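Record type: monomer structure entry
Structure origin: computed from sequence
Chain ID: A
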Amino acid sequence: MSTQAIAGPVSSPVALPYSRQAAINPWLIAITVTLATFMELLDTSIANVALPHIAGGLAVSYDESTWVLTSYLVANAVVLPLSAWLSRVFGRKNYYMACVVMFTISSFLCGLAPNLGLLIFFRILQGVGGGGLAPVEQAILVDTFPPAKRAGAFALYSMAIVTAPVIGPPLGGWITDHFTWRWVFFINVPIGILSLLLTSRLVSDPPQFIEEAKAARQSGKLRIDYVGISLIALGFGALEIVLDKGQREDWLESHFIVAFLTVAILSLVFAGIWEWRHPDPVVEIKLFKERNFALSNIFYFLFGFGIFGSTVLIPQMLQALFGYSATDAGLVLGPGAFVIVALAPVVVKILPKVDPRKMIGLAFFIVALAMWHFASLDLGTDYASYAWARAFQGLGLAFLFIPVSQLVYSYLPPGKNNKASSITNLFRNLGGSFGVAFVTTMLERRTQFHHSILAQHLTPSDAGFQQTLDSITQYMIARGSSAADAAQRAYGVISATAEKNAAMLGFLDCFWLLGFVSLVGLVLSFTIKKFGSSGAAGGH
């Protein structure tokens, strides 16, 4: 089958049908579905800062409590690629509402969990429910808005995608400090109920989607692909465990990680072969034959890699080296989200007048510059400087998400919307997981490297070290310490300073590397096939 057979004709605009009930404003539908997606994305980060409280409350170790995060991510990764197929089986609206119900009820049960085992079980259910929300929302937005107005809908979606992970850590810290960790989960219940009520009244499946699903059921095409589902679930589940636990287990030095990595690679390879040959695949891999769709998934991956990687690095650096509280460190991330929200309407307005390819390239270039700006800061940098640096990163991201969202559908026929949104959300999540694994690994290894270099100078034969040691020792003696005690304390001060400087250099190295990763997006932007700001092929 040729690329054109999959992507549709490229000589004329692709007319994507959309369904709007005359009495319902499409923006009400957009706000309704974004509400649940925001809630789900918030939950991917809000529990992070609550882990020490969860461990203490349930009388388990911190390492054991991290399965609260891993279990959710694994369940999420398993469901994401299957959400398009599940939408066809149950109907998009029914599936979406079922996801909201499962997410809401399991959130409530997480808050009531009496022990770690049940909490992990309920988190798995929560991840299963949450995994279907973002892909279905994106498909609903595509079918609800005509191509000319789709940028505005994606702007709203981008606000949820970017702000939820940023708000999560400071909100989770505030909740656990003022109430109890259980309210980190209870907070989802009223939002879930509101989302469910609004969805039942406002959202409906488009006629074409209903007809296609009905025809597929009647023709027997919706038979359960047990092999494909099993391989995909096993592969992405194992991969998520590898990414989440790899650094803690020392990667390939651990038999546990090697075993799961082997399972992940073999499962995904066989899944790819199986799905490529399947007449009605659960995940339509042949969509990647269309260049713009393949590039959009790489861009989503890089987007997730950069934003989640930096969102982990910045608060960790401010808490470990500057003594910030979890809440204050989280608030440094706020300006970036604020810039994205503020500029979203501006991007929607200028998008019809600017080549989206140039906008994507410029966005990645700005993000790279922002990361390198972070890499130029030091231990003397104040709060405002870090907040401004994050705002600079937000400037780049503001011009990235909306054109990439339109790039996805630029050459895809309408019948592929559901499958496309499922895949793109998977790649965004995978990018986040890879980004977090990358920065945590590189941070530890680069810190160790810099510490070994600095330690070479902490010897009596080094004149600079000896001079600093003597100076601090004399200072301690002048403050009343004995000579022996002063010398020991002086050595401790120098050693602590060396460790702090090594850690800072490790953080800066990570920012440099994130900048170079962003440059990959800039280079790839030159290979995008021309398309219009409405997502139409050929620039029409």
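Annotation 1: The chain has 24 helices and no strands.
Annotation 2: Confidence is low (pLDDT under 50) at residues 1-22.
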